[in-house]
Design goal:
The chain has 254 residues and is an alpha+beta fold. It contains 10 helices and 6 strands; from the N terminus they run ααβββααβαααααββα. The protein has 2 domains: 1-51; 65-252, Glutaredoxin, CATH 3.40.30. The chain has helices at residues 2-51, 65-72, 100-108, 110-118, 135-148, 153-162, 174-183, 189-196, 199-214, 242-252; strands at residues 77-78, 81-82, 89-95, 123-129, 222-226, 234-237. Strands 1-2-4-3-5-6 form a 6-stranded mixed sheet.
């Protein structure tokens, strides 16, 4: 009987070991799957940044003026809102002008939305500063608002992105901002200079950053939409494509 009992005990121990081993292998597979999913997200983000190119931050060589003009010409602007003021849907972008992923969205995602639903009058696009990188972002955001006061806000934003330098590198100087403003067609540079350094515009930069935080955003770019088909502002996070943004706009307009 003792030999039989020993065999049963050993069999039970083997079963427990097999169950434990299977559980550990399953957990490893889950971890590997999660890691793969995370890696896929990282790869997409890197591709967006790489596609936007390198360099930039050169005040003596502002690029993209013709491209930006072609994208925006004929579309009404008011402050940092692009599109027909009567459009029933508002797409809100919360971005940091130093953010390389925001630059990628500016060049690879938003043009489709601008050419279709913004130019077509279905939606207006509101740029909101969400300054999370450094003090240079605040100076850049203030300069964009000051350009918007003269009807060239979106030209400034788009040109800044197309000439963006490495974040926190010190490239956001008065010289660089002025070069972007001139290329954006800001008519009164003297007034723009005064405005961008005012407490009023500094407060406006702080206000939109605080709004982004209240909406629960933690990174840039982040988007939200508002229209007759939404219950107030509906957050979208960071959509993976222009098609997702267009779908959200269409739903918000119903």
């Amino acid at each position: 009987m003792s030999g039989r009992r020993d065999r049963e005990v050993r069999r039970e121990e083997r079963l427990r070991e097999e169950v434990t081993g299977a559980t550990e292998r399953r957990q490893q597979l889950i971890k590997l799957g999660s890691a793969a999913a995370f890696l896929a997200v990282v790869v997409v983000a890197v591709l967006i940044v790489v596609s936007s190119g390198g360099g930039g931050g050169d005040a003596s060589n502002i690029e993209g003026k013709a491209e930006v003009s072609q994208l925006l010409d004929g579309i009404p602007q008011s402050g940092l809102v692009l599109g027909d003021p009567k459009a029933k849907v508002t797409l809100l972008e919360f971005g940091d002008l130093q953010c390389p992923v925001c630059k990628g969205f500016s060049e690879e995602v938003l043009p489709q939305v601008i050419e279709s639903q913004v130019r077509g009058g279905e939606a207006k696009l509101s740029f909101n500063n969400y300054t999370i990188i450094s003090a240079e972002s605040i100076a850049a955001g203030a300069a964009a608002i000051a350009a918007g006061a003269q009807g060239r806000g979106w030209n400034f934003v788009e040109l800044f992105y197309r000439n963006q330098g490495e974040e926190r590198s010190g490239y956001v100087t008065d010289e660089f901002l002025t070069a972007v403003a001139r290329s954006a067609g800001v008519p009164n540079i003297s007034k723009w200079n005064k405005d961008r350094k005012s407490k009023r515009i500094a407060a406006a930069v702080e206000a939109t950053t605080a709004k982004a935080e209240r909406l629960g955003f933690t990174g840039t770019p982040s988007f939200a939409v508002e229209g007759p088909g939404t219950a107030g502002i509906e957050t979208l996070g960071t959509p993976g494509s222009a098609d997702e943004l267009e779908s959200a706009i269409s739903n918000a307009g119903q």
